[in-house]
Amino acid sequence: MIRHLNFILAIVLLLFISSCRKTKETILKEAWIEKPVSEWPDLVMTNTVEFSDTTYRNIGNAFLVHTGSDTLAITCKHIFMIFRNETNNKINLNDNFRSWSIYPKEEVEKSIQLGKLINQNSNEETGEFNTLKSRDWILFKLNKKTEFTPLKIRTRPVSEGEIVYAVGWAYKQYTQNPSLVKMKVYKNMGSYFYINTITENVDPAGRSGSPVIDKNGYLVGIVSGAEGKLGVIGGVSYLSRQLDEYKINSISKNAYES
After folding, report:
1. Which domains does the chain have, with CATH numbers?
2. Taking burial as the number of CB atoms within 10 A of a residue's CB, which of 31, 40, 60, 172 is the most buried?
3. Residues 218-235: pLDDT tens digits?
């Protein structure tokens, strides 16, 4: 009887170990994450937005995401605060809008024109930063395929003490490659989370819209702003809700959950 029980326990243990191995095997790092940033593919761009009488160049950062069924362009919604006069203080690109392009900083020749602003809303006011931080994502269709590398979305929320990284340029940074800013999650508020910046001597100006990735290269947030000494990162939960709302959410096919 005891021998029979030991045999059953051994089988259960083997099944548990096998299950753990299978779970670990699904946690795949992006191929580029182990390389120096200088060898990474083009992940981050800057924005140029043209209206009939004004052009705003080199404002914030942008990036691509792959939802599993489509590739979209992403940047921060509070960029609308810069040209709120042209948009009547709404998240809306009206008749005087001409074009929105993104490209790696200082490489205008790589520009791609963005298509439809997916979550455009003529009833949504731009607001101020404290009202934007929980919804600080705008999503664009692409007019054509691009060679820029999209990020995959991680569905598991960040946890307190987790190390994450912002990838992007500051406004007055003109290096060929974006910088990698190491950060530590302070507190997760659901739609956004607070971080402490670990990398020293970081110029925060103009980094809004930078993607925030985990140690495996998966998207966990977007740089939104700061409150006191803490940085504010928009969480991917809002992005996921937008994908659901506009019926383009195939995230489960190409998401990192573990």
Report:
1. 37-150 (2.40.10.10), 152-235 (2.40.10.10)
2. 60
3. 999 999 999 999 999 999
